[in-house]
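Researcher: Let's try something more involved. This one mixes different molecule types, so please make sure each is placed in the same coordinate frame as the others.
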Amino acid sequence: MKKHRSLKAILSGVQNGKIGIEEALTKLKHFPFDELTHTKLDTHRELRKGFPEVIFCQGKTVGQIVEIARAIKKHGDRLLMTRASEEVYSAVKALLPGARMNTLARTIAYAKHPVVYASRPVAIVTAGTGDIPVAEEARETLAIIGRTTEQFYDVGVAGIHRLLLHTQELDSCAVAIVVAGMDGVLPSVVGGIVSHPVIAVPTSVGYGAHFSGLAPLLTMLNSCAPGVAVVNIDNGFGAGYFASMINI
Amino acid sequence: MKKHRSLKAILSGVQNGKIGIEEALTKLKHFPFDELTHTKLDTHRELRKGFPEVIFCQGKTVGQIVEIARAIKKHGDRLLMTRASEEVYSAVKALLPGARMNTLARTIAYAKHPVVYASRPVAIVTAGTGDIPVAEEARETLAIIGRTTEQFYDVGVAGIHRLLLHTQELDSCAVAIVVAGMDGVLPSVVGGIVSHPVIAVPTSVGYGAHFSGLAPLLTMLNSCAPGVAVVNIDNGFGAGYFASMINI
Amino acid sequence: MKKHRSLKAILSGVQNGKIGIEEALTKLKHFPFDELTHTKLDTHRELRKGFPEVIFCQGKTVGQIVEIARAIKKHGDRLLMTRASEEVYSAVKALLPGARMNTLARTIAYAKHPVVYASRPVAIVTAGTGDIPVAEEARETLAIIGRTTEQFYDVGVAGIHRLLLHTQELDSCAVAIVVAGMDGVLPSVVGGIVSHPVIAVPTSVGYGAHFSGLAPLLTMLNSCAPGVAVVNIDNGFGAGYFASMINI
Amino acid sequence: MKKHRSLKAILSGVQNGKIGIEEALTKLKHFPFDELTHTKLDTHRELRKGFPEVIFCQGKTVGQIVEIARAIKKHGDRLLMTRASEEVYSAVKALLPGARMNTLARTIAYAKHPVVYASRPVAIVTAGTGDIPVAEEARETLAIIGRTTEQFYDVGVAGIHRLLLHTQELDSCAVAIVVAGMDGVLPSVVGGIVSHPVIAVPTSVGYGAHFSGLAPLLTMLNSCAPGVAVVNIDNGFGAGYFASMINI
Amino acid sequence: MKKHRSLKAILSGVQNGKIGIEEALTKLKHFPFDELTHTKLDTHRELRKGFPEVIFCQGKTVGQIVEIARAIKKHGDRLLMTRASEEVYSAVKALLPGARMNTLARTIAYAKHPVVYASRPVAIVTAGTGDIPVAEEARETLAIIGRTTEQFYDVGVAGIHRLLLHTQELDSCAVAIVVAGMDGVLPSVVGGIVSHPVIAVPTSVGYGAHFSGLAPLLTMLNSCAPGVAVVNIDNGFGAGYFASMINI
Amino acid sequence: MKKHRSLKAILSGVQNGKIGIEEALTKLKHFPFDELTHTKLDTHRELRKGFPEVIFCQGKTVGQIVEIARAIKKHGDRLLMTRASEEVYSAVKALLPGARMNTLARTIAYAKHPVVYASRPVAIVTAGTGDIPVAEEARETLAIIGRTTEQFYDVGVAGIHRLLLHTQELDSCAVAIVVAGMDGVLPSVVGGIVSHPVIAVPTSVGYGAHFSGLAPLLTMLNSCAPGVAVVNIDNGFGAGYFASMINI
Amino acid sequence: MKKHRSLKAILSGVQNGKIGIEEALTKLKHFPFDELTHTKLDTHRELRKGFPEVIFCQGKTVGQIVEIARAIKKHGDRLLMTRASEEVYSAVKALLPGARMNTLARTIAYAKHPVVYASRPVAIVTAGTGDIPVAEEARETLAIIGRTTEQFYDVGVAGIHRLLLHTQELDSCAVAIVVAGMDGVLPSVVGGIVSHPVIAVPTSVGYGAHFSGLAPLLTMLNSCAPGVAVVNIDNGFGAGYFASMINI
Amino acid sequence: MKKHRSLKAILSGVQNGKIGIEEALTKLKHFPFDELTHTKLDTHRELRKGFPEVIFCQGKTVGQIVEIARAIKKHGDRLLMTRASEEVYSAVKALLPGARMNTLARTIAYAKHPVVYASRPVAIVTAGTGDIPVAEEARETLAIIGRTTEQFYDVGVAGIHRLLLHTQELDSCAVAIVVAGMDGVLPSVVGGIVSHPVIAVPTSVGYGAHFSGLAPLLTMLNSCAPGVAVVNIDNGFGAGYFASMINI
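Model: All components are placed in one shared frame. Result:
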């Protein structure tokens, strides 16, 4: 990448009269877009720096992951890895002894100075036990950001009383993440009961005409209960990240 | 179609010695399949003659429909027409003054001697008002067969208490037909509450990622609640016919 | 529906000794689920009664719509109709002279005592002019709830500078609704720039391999930018309702 | 979960005059939904307790399965496991020596006191030998519930006389489960012959434009023969459970 | 298009010595591909000239169709138009008084000197009355080519005895075209009975999960009965053309 | 299965006067469908006995396959196995020492008395080398039936001159099987050149938007060239069987 | 939108010493992104200003279109409208008397000073006459940009010699746009013959398993012939625009 | 294949008078199409011989690949293998010691006399690190053809400033290949910034509703930014080949 003349040099020229205002204007108009842009966006990034760095491990080699983790470690103090293997954990552990793996969620989390926001919790609800790994990915995401959570696992509509039992506790949360495979019915039912937003997460748990999560995805997108929005199939991280920004 | 030598002629030949047994066996082995077949199947048909004749009007001209109705009238005393228009009704009315149209269901029914089975009723449940035409097609189908029904309309999960209110009445029916468009969630919820079979009918009521009924169809096929089977989108007739044969 | 013995009668019986405690317990256990349920849910409904009644007009006759509107008018003072026609508007106008139609959004809104929440606004962003009707449906939904909005229309990525121009204003909103047809790229780009949640709404604006909104729906579900959740194709109401509950 | 004041305490208060009727009504209205609900649903569950507990093993570890089996064993005397492996069987065998595996069906069944209903049998029909595992899953499901079955395996329409041979026997059953992969044609043919309901089960047996069962699923949903309803691809358990509730 | 030096001129040059063999070879190697090609293909075309010209009218204006018909009339004596309207017929009638429209098939046929091949007939079979237009398009196609046909209409599997009645007649044909909408089951059943090839034609007759013919198309492609090949949905012409070349 | 009174006994009764004609007629009308049916179909089967027995090995155990092979061996002298493994071959070899495996086609063929029909050959054409296994399955199918073939492999349109080179030889065949994956273009091109029927076989060779053969399947179904019919993806056997019945 | 302090004011402050360099740097870093961005992008836009403004008329009212056209007219001298109706043409004609409509292409073009690039032409090829409207949209797009074209219409592979006839002329173009519906085979064949890039345009011309252009789209994406890229179904404009930038 | 009489023999016959012109014309008209065709196409092929031979290794055995490589080596001096394994590399290395493998791209390249065109470079842009293998396949393809490239990897829109930083460099290239999985948004954004053609390559990198690349494929086909054309999912070779022919 070519070096650009610095902003400072232009301003100095204006100050000491070597560059006229019109000339400076022209220069600035053609001034490399990037420099200002970069600064601006970085500043802007600073404002939300509360969020730790995240590495989506799937499709990366252990070597690549460790290299990225090392780079992040230099200028940050929190790190989340999703879709990580045990092998990745061994390698990361050597670099960050305080890192902790959640084998269900397949996440690795590291926080030098853990934070917790004082706010209403995020409810995390699953229909079946098979949906728990996705729910746990959401929970770990919220945990490293510092948002509190409350779990309601295995309360699918085949035994709807298990869900109804928790109506009040559910409704006292700030937002709900509802994770369901199979028919994906749960978010609609929860959305009909609570008065806060519901983030629906379809999972790939199912078989036959489930088409790896397409069935619950469509169910959720067509939810009759208003107040339901949807993220990608199995995207626990996305649901957690989205929830972390809501109703703090 | 060619005429076949009659069975009777062969038997007479055997009786009067003109045809030997071996020869008769050969003849019978090559005997036109159809004649016996036809008889057999007709006898078999007789056994279930309780069911009236049905005309699916969609894609047929008024002339064709009237012609079929006239033929049925000759040897039957009950008739059901589905997907019928007002124009068809006018024409049929002239032929069968006792015929009655259900404009919501778009059905025309005629029964010289109406029958009613003494049996537990069939519950017909809909999620929204838009699903009622399909439910009514099921109800008319059951009515002309003589099966009693009980309706629970507009009890979708967005206001789940409307459904729960009716738990006991629902459960006292012999079978439930549950009709739902949008997310198609209702049959799963009903299936989790009642102890009898649930026939789920997806409808084409919806928009966007609903894909004309594909979304609720998949929801229903993947139902977590056991005891749910599914018929084609908008197939109120099929659901009614299927239910009519259950738990009489 | 059968009448149930009232709760009060059971309690009176206990009080005057006519019903023993064990007997009362048994009665209560079999007590019609519905009554309590109903009360409970209605109370719960009361808590969020801020939300006006909504009628989805598509697929309903003018007669049906007016009837529902009349019922709502009795016990409420706000009303929103979506996917309404001019014909519906004429009929509703007679009933509710203060009703106002937004012909772009195809909504009819009525509020006896309009409210406005004091909160950061909801940004409503569209890629093209064809997406504006869906955006307007979202805006009307937010308006009748009392949430303020700020519009950024026609800022699609084909002329990405139009979007970048508004980075700061966008980022000062509480949440963004981003509406896009065609390639559905805009929510990903907005999500990469702002630090609050993005609600993505795919629209059916497009042709060919757009498949009536499937293309932008998939784009949005797969967004690389975290903090994006999706509602159904053309579901401006759903996006507005969801946004209304966020970061007030 | 918070403890709630018991119902009994409220009734005692009413009885001994410490709680007035109005006060009690208020308490009951806010009475934790769940307790009554739970009781009610459990009672209701009792009514259909004929059905044994079922564990869908796919996606669960051996440890998880054994733990669930142990819990069920405590308060039940029948157990069915579907999609089980030999490894699961070894572990379950140690816990329940009387358990029996059907390796074709991949089910494990255990019944301390086997029951058999006196009722017309359920016909189980398959098109090809490849469809037998799904049929066997249905058969095992019916067996543990106590419903008798009659098998008609490998009678697909490529050799339609094999099916026609059994017309009478088929028709004497109470209901038929028809299992077919490939073109999924068999349920339509059986539905055209018998006078009782047909539960169609598409299987994932096929290749090419079969799309893992989509082809027979669509065939069955569009069946011209009335009296056919469909369950999910390969869902032998669902078909068996549904059939168990029919025409006993 | 540029004129090319004719082949004859090159050969004359060789004959009279003005062009050497090497030079001629070079010329021929660069000789406009097209000329020879054209000739060759035309010759080849001549060999199969038995087949009349065909105009697919859908998407063409009446003007365009008449113009093409006029061109064909100059050098041919047979003409077939598919997907034609009454309006087209009026216009064509003026040009070719002997033309004849089949309103069911929506075809217009004209033959100055009708021919009939002496060969076993082509069986044309339909499942329902709704499939007849497609069958008639096939029949008209075969008729103008001169191939005899035998019709078996409305013999769908819901009343399978109607089909079995005709086993022998069906089997005595040279090839069968089997047309079916809904579940598309009929070609599999016919294929299991006859010993000659079956050309399966799915139709767009159906609703719901029929997806405009996708359901019967998949059924037919997955047929368990060998000896079945498939043409496009509603492609009666294609089936007729294909059949016309078989087992003459 | 119950034993039925034999036909012979009835006829004897008629002959010796013990059974009257009317009584015999009644008996015959209720005569077990199956027996005649079976006979009839077997006779009919006899007529086409030219075709050897076929075992589709995929999804069957070696044990099952050997068992079927042994049964066939008893009353037949030819056998074809498709989708066979080397392991199956070893087992079959022990039973039928004359069996021969084609490892490309994954077929095993056995014929005690090989036959060859005197007829025009079937052309087998492939687009690429990856399509050859499917072509070879077709070739083996034709070989065991006794039909001669001519191969034109690897003549895809990327180098269209390779195909055009063979126009005359192609056209002198009785029918062509054209096998192609990727874009599935070849059958359309062949169909535009030859004057006999083309059986198109899509293969699963491809990647990306090929969707395991869906792309060439759709290409072929929509072929502009008349005279093209299609079989299932990778269905070399089906194409060979279909071709074997054409233009002998 | 808030007004931003101008760049010029900052520079003046630096020049007259009222603003120090560090302060100016800070100001510039936070300087509204947009202003510079806008300028930059506009300059950049200027560089390619050869391209006229384009209005996609579908889904816009005549009023909206005329308003946009009026705005463009102010600062430009060329205009292209796609998917325009006759009604739009009447309105535009009043504004721009020199505008010219192509009714086949449904485009309206206006150029005060028409330009023509000196470059090799763009070949525009269609398979059938039904594909011509899309081809004409591409041609009009290229015409208003000033790129020359050469048409090869109706040269589909059903009569492949028509295409081969033009090999040399085709190959002498700079790039080819190949438009095809039905099976979409033509771009693969052209790609196998010419040595320049082929832009494939699938059209919605077809029926049945064509799925409104999906079939040819997949064919083209899977083309065996390298050198083929694809644009959206019916996107003649996109193909023309893309081609206009190639090999000038 | 039969031997044909050579062209030369015919010309000699004409020269020496043994063959008359008419006779020669007839012979030539029936002259085996192939010979001329072959020559013609080979000549034509010669013109673009710049392009090396390519072997798509997927689905071929090592033996087959080596055999093809050996054949190519005889008459060419450049070779590219795509989708190659390490095992293939070992075998090829023995044959062509100068061959070089790119393990990321899974390509093997060999060039006796490497060439480099003097032309503006082709930009290769990727959204994420997971898209790099496909980008590298494109780069290797361009390298062996001799076209220079410039890489812009990992500049996806989640951090859009990384892309904007490179606007000028990007725009100075002749054409851009933009590779993206997930939401496939990047080509639209690049297309909105640069003034040269963009070749979009969707990748199979993603999960859930990504459907192995379908999501980014649809995004790209529907791009709002004109000047974007698309190749198959993961088709780095196709993109590179297409780009190599543009704006040299």
